[in-house]
Structure formats: structure tokens, C-alpha cells
Amino acid sequence: MSTIDRNRGLTTPATPAARQPATAKTLSNPLGSILDAAKDGLKDIPRFVKMGKDVFEASTVKELRRIFGSDATPDRMTDGKFVGAQGQTFPPTTALKDLPAVTPRNNPNASETLIYVNGIMTPLQGQLGEMQALADKSGARVIGIHNATQGLVTDLAQCVTDKLDKGKNPAVDTLADTVYTELKAGRDVHLVGYSQGGLITARALGDVQRRLRIEDGLSAADAEKAMSHINVETFGAASTHYPDGPKYVHYVNNADAVPTLTGLGGSFDPLAFAKDAGKGAVVRRFTDGNLNLISNHMLDTAYLPHRVPFDQARAGRFE
What is residue 193's three-state secondary structure? Predict the structure, then answer.
């Protein structure tokens, strides 16, 4: 069951569609269940090793090549740029209509467009893979705004400054400018943020709200009404607060430490009173995981299998 609530949508942990339901055998053999969970976690280790190598290449090796005269482009050089089909990047000032989107494999003529912001430790090619997975699951076109990686320590430090709404983050600026421009043109916007991308989305929406109040002179109620043309989905997001106005659906895996410890919290959260998912937000909490905490946070395997169409999610229908 999912509820719509300002601060918290309590959901009974559900058996994920991607996993087999508990059987009498597994219930009577908890050790076997633990071993199965451990095996599932081990299966993902080669994938994470490759991801680590990709981050090192994008944030360190290419940086060294650039310093010593090579034409390699470090990932940070694409920070805040738009990402389109085949990983092409475009300046933040590019109009959305001029961007070639990633399209679903089974529907190249999709009409709806999602704007996707990735999380930490994700080079450009990693984001492109996530965009394709999102396009295939949603049936929509996907345009990315790249949240560049500079390695784990720097990425985590940026998460802290994003939470404090301090410092410059190019992805925040690009997203805020894009949303503001689209709203002023009378167009609806659909945003998707994953992990730090959800934190970036929340921060950008706060910037949009302030611009509507200060630059356009709108009242708080009118700014909220203007932002009702924004649909937002977050997956495993690291933000605890979202401004009122947009229509939100937040997905939180109880087995994922990122949203349960740094975001909106799991099904049991003693700090729920201090968090705000946004007025009228739907928070979908479920439990899907193994003993590998990284696996439990993955967009494509842990979260997207639980996504349902936005309007269906807003109605609280996840089955």
C-alpha cells in the first residue's frame, strides 16, 4: 500500500516483481536465504569492478593525458552539459527541441521527454547506459544533464555542499535554467533524478522557486501553482527536502543505504518528522536487495523494475 502524504508516504515493504516471492522452503531455511543473498551480491562484483575502472579512466587517466598534451577529455569537462543520443554533449544553453534524445529501443518515435540527472561516480558513458535503460522502461525520450564525476571523495564532498545549498554545481545551474525557461514558455517538464541526481533536482527546483518569487514577483501560492507543471521522479535520492508545487513520485528501496540514511528514509524512520517529500508527494517504499549494498542502489536493476507510469504512480497503484 502506498499513501500520499506531505512528509512521508508509508508503504508496506512489498515483494519486488523482479524477485521470487518467499516460499515455505525459504521461510523455513533462513540460512539458505542468506546464502542466496550473498550469491546474488557476488554476481554483481565484476560489474562494479568495471565501473570503478571506468571512473578512474574518466576522472584520472584522461586528466593526466590532458595535462601532458593529449586530447583526452576528462569527465569534468562535460559537467552540466546536456547529453543526447550516442553520448553527444551540448552546451547548457541549447534548447531542448534541438537535442537528439535517447529513445526506447521499441519506440523511436516516442513523444514524451524526460530530463535525467545521474548520481555520483558515473562517467558520461555510464549515464548514457542509464538513459537507455530509463527510455526502455518508460517508453519516453530521455535527455541527460551530466553530473560529472571527479572520483569518490570529491563527489561525496559535492553532495555535502548540495545538501547545504552552497557552492557551484554546473548540473544544478543547467537544470534550474532549463526548467525556468520551459515554465516561462508554458511547457510542462518531466524530471528524473537518481541518487545525487535527486539531490541536484531538489536544489535546482529550489532555485526555480526563488527565481519565480524574485525575478517574476510571484507570491508563494502563485509560484507553487506555476511549478505544478513539473513532474518529478526520484530513485534512491539523497535529498530530504523538496519544494512544494511539482508533482512528485519518490522511489525508496528499504535495502538501499543512500535514501534510507541520507534521503527520505525507509519504511521505519525516526527522523521522518524532519523530512519533506514535497506537498502531495507519493513515496513508494519497497524492499529489494541482497548483501551487496551497491547492488541495492543500482538504477537499472534495483529501481527501474519497480517503476510504473507516472500517472499510475501518482494514483498509488504500483501493482
Answer: strand
- As a whole number of angstroms, the distance between CA 256 and CA 297 comes to 5
Predicted TM-score of the model (pTM) = 0.84
Encode pLDDT of 176-227 as tens digits.
999 999 999 999 999 999 999 999 999 999 999 999 999 999 999 999 999 9
Nearest 5°: the CA angle 203, 155, 136 is: 70
Q: What is the residue type of 256?
A: D
Helix, coil or strand: residue 143: strand
Beta strand 82-83 pairing with 141-145: antiparallel
Q: Cα dihedral sign for 38, 126, 299, 134?
A: negative
For cell 562484483, name the residue.
45
Residue 119 contacts by C-beta under 8 Å, 6 or more apart in sequence? 147, 194, 195, 196, 197, 198, 236, 238, 299
- Placement of cell 557551484 in the chain: 168
Q: What CATH number belongs to 24-314?
A: 3.40.50
Q: Which helix (H) or strand (E) holds 192?
A: strand 189-194
Which three three-digit cell numbers place residue 99? Answer: 537535442
